[in-house]
């Protein structure tokens, strides 16, 4: 009985493992051009569902307040387009004398400049109970995708919420679970696409080194954002920290691959240059998904103690303990 209860409580983590196994067994089903057509179903329909779900579940006052959080928006945009490129440039310089292929190092440089994704950061922030409204704004702004797949579903969701607010609050629709299910679909199609890339030729040791490097970079960047965002002078709330951890460190594969193809179209090393981004994308989703329960538990604990210590000074002292 306790095993069943544990499985139910950790259904999302179990789901991540299962969808990765399914993707490995038959990647062509969920790969680009495959039976599920993720280039349409995930890119347009899936993203629309994500933002419609957010518009329906988010209180309008919270969304309005998030638009005015200039400190959060500046943090995300500066970290994404200034701090990460600077840090990865230093990493690439340090790796110049390493056995890694030059094209892979070029790929790391390009990776650092990519904008954030629209869907994954929002879904992970929502799943962890963070500032979903801020995640929506910065994901859309950073990706320059304030378009029909983002704005219209969000507005439609807000309109329906205004019309049926009491019914929605009374029936308690599981918006979080819906978002998590969509995220599992995103993870599945992402890994299908990753496992289906067999035409890329690179030394096995170089590929393993890139995977390990990306994992370390991703984890390091998340820890850096987490540590810096808790500094009291920034005036950020714990829920903001959760949004920042995911929004600041994620990179868009959907926009990244076309950008790389435009810059290096017809270049022989195109496939190798794409590897760091192709590796980074599934790592950010997998690592983010695995961290959701931990981040959510931290947020709940922090908010509880914040309620117990309403004074900012006393609460800051608690965080330092």
Architecture overview:
With 321 residues, the protein is an all-alpha fold. The chain is built from 17 helices and no strands. Helix 6 (102-112) packs parallel to helix 16. The longest helix has 34 residues, at 275-308. It is globular. The model has no long low-confidence stretch (mean pLDDT 81).
Descriptive terms for the model:
single chain; 321 residues; mainly alpha
Task: Give the structure's gist in a few sentences.
This protein is an all-alpha fold and 321 residues long. It has helices at 2-9, 11-25, 38-57, 60-67, 70-94, 102-112, 120-128, 132-143, 151-163, 165-171, 175-195, 204-229, 238-247, 253-263, 270-273, 275-308, 312-320.
Rounded to an integer in angstroms, the radius of gyration calculated over CA atoms is 20 Å
Note the run of SSEs as H and E: HHHHHHHHHHHHHHHHH
Coarse shape: globular
Number of helices: 17
Query: Quaternary state, please?
Result: single chain
The CA-CA distance between the termini, in Å, is 38 Å
Average the pLDDT over all residues and give the rounded result: 81
Number of strand segments: 0
Name the poorly predicted regions. Answer: none
- Portion of residues within helices: over 70%
Bin the strand percentage: under 5%
Structural class: mainly alpha
Major sheet characteristics? none
List the helices and strands and how they pair.
Elements: H1 2-9, H2 11-25, H3 38-57, H4 60-67, H5 70-94, H6 102-112, H7 120-128, H8 132-143, H9 151-163, H10 165-171, H11 175-195, H12 204-229, H13 238-247, H14 253-263, H15 270-273, H16 275-308, H17 312-320
């Amino acid at each position: 009985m306790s095993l069943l209860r544990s499985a139910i409580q950790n259904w999302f983590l179990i789901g991540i493992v299962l969808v990765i196994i399914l993707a490995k067994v038959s990647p062509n089903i969920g790969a680009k051009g495959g039976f599920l057509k993720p280039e349409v179903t995930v890119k347009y329909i899936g993203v629309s569902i994500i933002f419609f779900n957010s518009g329906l579940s988010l209180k309008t006052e919270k969304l309005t307040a998030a638009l005015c959080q200039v400190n959060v928006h500046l943090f995300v945009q500066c970290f994404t387009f200034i701090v990460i490129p600077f840090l990865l440039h230093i990493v690439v310089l340090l790796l110049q004398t390493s056995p890694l292929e030059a094209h892979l190092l070029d790929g790391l440089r390009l990776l650092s400049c990519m904008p954030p994704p629209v869907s994954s950061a929002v879904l992970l922030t929502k799943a962890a109970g963070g500032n979903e409204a801020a995640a929506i704004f910065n994901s859309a702004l950073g990706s320059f995708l304030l378009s029909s797949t983002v704005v219209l579903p969000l507005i439609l969701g807000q309109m329906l919420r205004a019309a049926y607010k009491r019914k929605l609050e009374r029936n308690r629709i599981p918006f979080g679970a819906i978002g998590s299910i969509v995220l599992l679909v995103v993870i599945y199609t992402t890994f299908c696409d990753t496992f289906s890339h067999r035409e890329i030729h690179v030394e096995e040791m170089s590929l393993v080194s890139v995977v390990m490097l990306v994992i370390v970079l991703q984890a390091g960047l998340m820890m850096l954002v987490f540590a810096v965002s808790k500094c009291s002078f920034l005036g950020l709330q714990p829920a903001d920290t959760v949004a920042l951890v995911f929004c600041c460190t994620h990179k868009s594969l959907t926009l990244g691959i076309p950008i790389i193809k435009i810059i290096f179209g017809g270049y022989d090393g195109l496939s190798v240059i794409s590897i760091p981004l192709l590796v980074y994308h599934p790592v950010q989703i997998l690592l983010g998904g695995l961290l959701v329960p931990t981040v959510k538990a931290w947020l709940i604990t922090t908010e509880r103690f914040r309620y117990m210590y309403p004074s900012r000074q006393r609460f800051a002292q608690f965080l330092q303990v």
